[in-house]
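Bench notes, bay 3.
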Amino acid sequence: MKVGFIGLGKLGRDAAEVLNEQHDVTGYDPNVNVPGLSGTLQEACTDKDIVLIAVQTPHDPAYDGKEPTSHLPPKDFDYSFIRTAVQDVDNLVDENTLIVVISTMLPGTVRREIAPLIKNGRFIYNPYLIAQGTVKWDMRNPEMIMIGTEEGEASDDADLLYDLYDPILDKICRYEIGTWEEIEALKVFYNTFISTKLALVNMIQDVAENVGHMNVDVVTNALKNSTQRIMGPSYMKAGFGDGGGCHPRDNIALRVLNDRYGMGYDLFDAIMKAREEQAANMARYCLKYNMPVVILGKAFKPGIDQTAGSPSMLVGWYIEKLGSQKVYYDKIPDGGAYTILIHDKGMIPETWDNPGSCIIDPYRELEPVKNHTVKHYGNSNR
């Protein structure tokens, strides 16, 4: 396969060299010359099946993490380099060439700033999960290969990426296909999961230093071997926040450690604020339909009758606080139209008898219902 690779910097060069082992790759970087690989921009773009663009999307140097950044205002990446590179490449290709952007971007950037620039070639978003020092190994052994298309569907262009990557892989790899926004989010939240894990285990380290008689490794080793709930797929289905007599209560109580030992940060407080604001966001979504609200599932989780720490009741609290709407629990009143929020799927009626109602499914599973509107909360494609 004839491949162009734009951007031969700290990550791009190694990635291009791996691809060159199985394909005919011509690279281009105005600041880097790689013998046997580099050519002009025109040579890297002309008559190519694919042109990959791995140009930086840098942050302001003040935000690189060597010095404190939490006091600074939020700031997006700089997309000027990638915009210029995409325009330059598009000017040199036609519809026979697939332009593939690798650079990291925040969700919404491709559709807003990158895709409109492409007039001649075809386009896919394909960010990499590679790290400095292990790029070549990461290219041959990726955890997944992410492919972003306009509508999130398989296509001939997506198949072309299978043909590009399959020959370089040391093992069978899963391909994840989604919309541009889904793949943008997958890339950045993958990294955020890592940052969050590190923040949590380092917080346990700080607690160990302050409380005494405690080795952080004893705790973290036990946690990393806890595969039923922590190190596994559990709790990876978005919907309501956590609930019950332990989870919210323990986080609320653990806030005292920051005050007691002066650790300087309060991750427990941030977790609880996130839980509350997520419930408020769901409440606002229910309120926009301007109908009384029914929440199916008052208990903190399906199949029980305990309401301690109930996340659905927290949503109900915000509904009444923010919108002064009446909230009913567990049973849909006879007659009239309602906004019906599903918490316990076991309470879904066999037949829906409230025409004009809006059913909000935060699990994104309910099929269309006659004379009712079904909304899959968390899926803006539907």
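Next record in the batch:
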Amino acid sequence: MHAGSMNQTTVRTALYQSHISAGANMVDFHGYELPIWYSSIQEEHLSTRNSAGLFDVSHMGLFRFRGNGVRAWLSSVSTQEYMKFQPGSCGYAHFLDHEGNIIDDMIFAISNEEEVLGVPNSTMVKVVFDWLSSNLPSDDSIVIENLSEETSIIALQGPNSGKILKDILGEENDVRRFRCQEIMANRKDLSGWIQGTGYTGEKGVEIFLSNEDAPSLWGDLISHHEVTPVGLGARDTLRLEKGYLLSGQDFLWPGIEGDGDDFPAGFLARTTSQTSVPFGLDIGHDFIGREALLRSMQSESKLWGMECMERGPSPRPGHRVMDGPEENSEIIGYVTSGGPSPSKGMTGIALGYLRNCEAGSEVWIQSSSRRRVRSEVKRPPFV
């Protein structure tokens, strides 16, 4: 995430005017003009945990995969076995290159036997589209459509999201976690797609609809007394507390520009097993990168959580992690994501790849040139 001055090439979502009207502080986020916060990151974060938050995530991509045998083909190019998912269900997968490196991750939804919807990360839409297109069957039996530009995505997240959704779109559209369906008949006469997914770890939905219809639905949802608009800042702290990966930050495909100055060369080139994400990997089927992934399972370096045990500067991406407080201590890894946790009284938390660690180990995060903060290694989530 980066904030910068707006320029003429910045893309505005269909909800831009709604954000301005709500007093949002806008930033340039990888070429999209999006809200970083409305009231404060902490307030928006806690409102989502305790009631409901509303997010514009229209910068994310949307692909439609169609054709006879589409689930078998997707299984061959990703870490998930799509044949185990029935129509009306969602899942999570990684796409790997032939060396086992993660290109991107994706939430997918099985629409029917011959159609799957997928949500790639905003910065990776073209990269993933090109990679998958290059691996399509030669008989043209599978088609990939990029619906990203014509689709708005609204996320309603939080423990009260189900009740609110029923109030606005009717009981038939209150989908359960990792279930999905077309938007059913409703008083707003909206059509589109709805699925029980999100990036906060809370109960909630993501709603896919036309750019033309998005402002009307956003307006109705934001007018509900239990709903708080939420910007990118709190979206990041919410996902960090749950230990969810951020593409380009917790892993970075070596096929695009490198890791920057904060990490050793190639540090963020990672396999699925190194990310310690258990729910996106099914090694019982053959897929691109599988052999390299199996070899990486013996890697000493794995993604861990860290929680600061004392006050000090918050951990940030690129901070070194040491095995002791002494000057001659060894670097055992680096923070990839970090910051204060609003749900834990602003205690510093972090994700990072560490060598030869286990839950309960003590490590020291070099959070400034003069300060190392003692921290406990944990297996996320933090809350």
